[in-house]
Design brief:
about 190 residues; alpha/beta; Purple Acid Phosphatase, chain A, domain 2; about 15% helix; globular
Length: about 190
């Protein structure tokens, strides 16, 4: 199974379309870690900012999409999309892989470790910082795909791919514009 992971779209329709038609073209599922529409008061509008047409693109998506609510998402955003924006986190299980999906602004690493240990979850996916993170702590992998529309830190627009096979998972952080892996980790 191939899972595309993104976060912090902030209304960026241009990068959304490029990813869906590019690096996520053959994924089986997409996970979105929040901040879908509004760019927030501390961010500029991303190139191709178009919340109405982004909502329509989400509704027209032919792939399964799981989304959680970020700190810039509001309850009124749900009016525009058919897919539930879940909050404060989503518990997922795909191909034997247990995932905690959340935005990252409410839970500390210690709280995440406590929750994932309690539920025996192997991956914690968050966003919020717009900076990539891929590291293993005890039995939990912390994954932040960064932001494809408003990247911070090194400024590289990124997403992540998780590929499961035979009880193992390969996680890659990808520069979506170049289709190039920047960092990877193997679980299992």
């Amino acid at each position: 199974m191939r899972i595309g992971v993104m976060s912090d779209t902030h209304g960026g329709l241009k990068s959304w379309r490029e990813i869906i038609n590019g690096v996520f073209f053959d994924v089986d599922l997409i996970l979105h870690a929040g901040d879908i529409f509004y760019h927030g008061i501390h961010n500029p509008q991303p190139e191709g900012y178009d919340t109405i047409n982004l909502a329509q693109a989400i509704n027209d998506l032919k792939k399964p999409l799981v989304m959680c609510k970020g700190n810039c998402d509001s309850e009124v955003d749900q009016v525009g999309v058919d897919i539930p924006i879940q909050s404060p986190y989503v518990l997922c299980q795909f191909d034997g892989l247990k995932i905690l999906l959340h935005h990252g602004h409410l839970l500390s690493d210690e709280e995440i470790l406590r929750l994932t240990s309690h539920w025996d979850y192997g991956i914690s996916i968050s966003g919020h910082t717009h900076i990539t993170r891929l590291e293993q702590n005890d039995k939990v992998v912390f994954l932040n795909p960064g932001s494809h529309s408003l990247p911070k830190g090194d400024g590289i627009p990124t997403v992540a791919l998780i590929e499961t096979k035979g009880g193992k998972a390969m996680i890659d952080i990808i520069n979506y514009q170049q289709g190039k892996s920047l960092k990877n980790l193997v679980m299992g």
